[in-house]
Amino acid sequence: MAPAARPPFARPVGCAPVAVQINVQAFRDSLPAEVAEAAARLRRDGSVGELESAGGGVQAVVRDGQAVFQPWVGIVERAFTGDCDCAPVGDELCGHAVAVALTAFDTDVVFASAATPPGADPVEPERAAYRLAVQRLAPRQLADLLAEHAVRDRLLATRLLHEAGMLDPADQSGLADFRAVLRDASNATSGSRWGISDVEAAGHRLAEEVEILCARPPTIAMLDLVEESIRVWDELAGHLIDAYYERRTDPEEIGDALVDAHRDLCERLDLEPGEIDDRLTELVRGCVHGTVDLDTYADLLGDHARR
């Protein structure tokens, strides 16, 4: 982890311990010429990906030729600090971290006055073991292993392609696949030979397919489909409610997963509170079995939250 030069680029705003101002010009002036030029080249080439908040700082994927890095920058012990996969030598920030920092400055990102760099928090033992295993694999071994499992696991495959920037939001194939799942779920109780296990199976498949769908870049069309899945499940849930002693799945187990996915999509799409409220009004109207818990959306609704 490399701190920038020592001038206090960050200072608290008023009395708030989490809001800081960055002296951007002082930061630029402190950069070695080669680092500044490398950062400028990366930004000019569009190599800096979408900024993400992390631990009070910000990170982004940066593509440098054939190499890919994910530098993080933030305020640590009052010094503007960077952490990057390229492992820069010495105390200076690397060009990847500087490119992320300058992009963040240009978009008015708010930095916490005491950020936590990646890897500073304790890692769960099980996750730590997997991370250690990954570090012991050669890149080709890891690539082969991921590709092999992605072929068998559609969620992993979707997340892998999304993280690699290889999923086009305009691609309609995922939406078409999900519409077919909705049709199947809607028909789970058609005919005369269905049972409660069919309802449960339809619900679990809905939850699994919603998770796969939402691993894609978010779109309004995707949100519409998730809302339809909630309506479909609410109707099916009535059968589980009536079959209290026979069912093995509680209606909330499926409903909560669908509603949580819907709430996360609203946040990822950065919808206005008023639009979220309008959508929830329609959704609640069509869900007579209480599948939608409005408290789930309280932080997104703001003044529109219902009391």
Description of the structure:
This protein has 307 residues and is α+β, with helices and mostly antiparallel strands. The protein is 51% helix and 11% strand. The protein is built from twelve helices and nine strands. Strands 1-9-8-5-4 form a five-stranded antiparallel beta sheet. Strand 8 (72-76) and strand 9 (79-83) form a beta hairpin. The relative contact order is 0.08. Residues 4-17 have low confidence and may be disordered.
Structural class: alpha+beta
Mean pLDDT: 86
Q: How many distinct beta strands?
A: 9
Please provide the ordered H/E string of secondary-structure elements: EEEHHEEEEEEHHHHHHHHHH
Features:
two-stranded antiparallel ribbon; 2 domains; single chain
Task: Describe the protein's topology.
Blueprint: E1 2-3, E2 10-13, E3 16-22, H1 24-30, H2 33-44, E4 52-54, E5 57-59, E6 62-64, E7 67-69, E8 72-76, E9 79-83, H3 95-106, H4 125-135, H5 139-152, H6 154-163, H7 173-186, H8 196-213, H9 220-242, H10 251-268, H11 273-285, H12 298-301
Antiparallel strand pairs: 1-9, 2-3, 4-5, 5-8, 6-7, 8-9
Please sum up the structure shown.
This protein is α+β, with helices and mostly antiparallel strands and 307 residues long. It has helices at residues 24-30, 33-44, 95-106, 125-135, 139-152, 154-163, 173-186, 196-213, 220-242, 251-268, 273-285, 298-301, and strands at 2-3, 10-13, 16-22, 52-54, 57-59, 62-64, 67-69, 72-76, 79-83.
